[in-house]
Design goal:
There is one protein chain. This protein is mainly α. The chain is built from six helices and two strands, in the order H-H-H-H-E-H-H-E. It has a two-stranded antiparallel sheet. The protein is globular.
């Protein structure tokens, strides 16, 4: 299994913030470090989709950055899946609808199911 490091997620965040003229800054590096370490627990997160859901959840809902948390969560999750031989493709409107209507109450299992439904394994 391939993982993103906290430094790589911070880099992704900084690039996204630069492109969108958002505010730079980290609220909690601890959230990133804890999340990445926790994802390695194969009993709690037995597969790449459970790990990807936890990564998305941690960034989108715990908000380790001053701004750009959703964009960072989406891009980091997509990259994590890509590193683990999976293409995640979801229409922009579907993503926006999920974020607007479901994210606040979404569970890890629901996020995992969305990732599975919108992913294709690469050979």
């Amino acid at each position: 299994m391939n993982y993103l490091s906290p430094a790589e997620i911070l880099y992704i965040h900084n690039r996204l913030v630069d492109e969108t003229s958002s505010i730079h800054g980290v609220e909690s590096v601890g959230i990133l470090k804890k999340t990445i370490n926790y994802l390695r627990n194969n009993e709690v997160f037995p597969d790449k989709f459970a790990k990807a859901a936890a990564l998305f959840f941690a960034i989108a809902k715990k908000k380790p950055f001053k701004s750009g948390n959703l964009a960072t969560a989406l891009f980091s999750t997509k990259l994590f899946l890509d590193l683990n031989k999976t293409d995640f493709e979801m229409e922009r409107m579907e993503v926006q609808d999920f974020i607007k209507n479901c994210l606040n109450r979404a569970t890890l299992e629901e996020i995992k199911n969305i990732l599975i439904q919108n992913s294709i394994s690469k050979a």
